[in-house]
Design brief:
Elements lengths: L2 E8 L9 H17 L4 E3 L17 H5 L12 H10 L2 E12 L2 E11 L5 E6 L19 H4 L9 E4 L2 E7 L6 H8 L5 E6 L15 H16 L2 E6 L2 E3 L2 E3 L4 E3 L5 E4 L6 E8 L4 H4 L5 H4 L7 H4 L1
Parallel strand pairs: 1-2, 2-3, 7-8, 8-9
Antiparallel strand pairs: 1-14, 3-4, 4-5, 6-7, 9-12, 10-11, 12-13
The protein binds 4-methylsulfanyl-2-ureido-butyric acid.
Amino acid sequence: SRIVTVGAAQLGPIARNDTRSQVVSRLIALLTQASQHGCDLVVFPELALTTFFPRWYFEDQAEIDQFFEREMPGPETRPLFEAARELGIGFYLGYAELAEEEGRTRHFNTSILVDKTGAIVGKYRKIHLPGHAEHEPWRQFQHLEKRYFETGNLGFPVFRAFGGIIGMAICNDRRWPETYRVMGLQGVEMVLIGYNTPVHNPPAPEHDNLSHFHNQLVMQSGAYQNGSWVVGVGKAGNEEGVMQIGNSIIVAPSGEIVGACSTLGDELAVARCDLDLTQSYKSTTFNFARHREPQAYGLIVER
Ligand code: CDT
């Protein structure tokens, strides 16, 4: 067996004027708790350093950029990396990334994978950006990810770390089967996912009371259909007047939920995940080399 003990480190709300340092101390408290439970790896939510700012319409780019990190680690986030190194725990962290690339300033919704020495060993930039690009005043709150972020340009890479093959996705990515399958085709054994999911979906309020069901449905099927562990972690509770789901879960390759948070606050759920449990799925029902029929799937990439 290859055991990775994982902590799903759910966060409660982050207020708009909370400082990075305040948030980082909450992250370090969860990391310390995880260390006491013997965790190898801790998963934090999407955009885990600030409030979920795409809920507001801003015109001033300088105001928007205040939610972004220009370096990682930077002065306020370095203590988190130091704590990880001292405790010997890795982590997944979601944050808003401001990058100078191709001669221009670029904005991405990003996650990183940090190993037990505090080194960044993987980066992912969110591909499925939900919401809208223009101000829509009819909504109770905005979801302006298409305005504030560019589509990720790194594909869905996987990383050899923690004794296995680890992949990352961010929030809305978890609803798309292609996300898991592209990593499944690279042999992924554990997919780490942070999210911020409002209970209320303004264009489709009829889905509101299904938000937990859909959260579990997509991650349980993604896990089973690719013979992979999936760890999904939310920023939960009433954040600046918007209710977000918690329901952070750790899903086995069988599709079963083996660990879960039950509050809407800062909470750690822990599971001992055997990466070798992926094998009985990857070598039988979902033996891709043997049973996939890609010649019949062309439409998926043509449209
Ligand atoms: N952050 C993020 O991607 N949230 C979306 C809400 C989209 S509205 C259905 C999510 O998929 O949870």
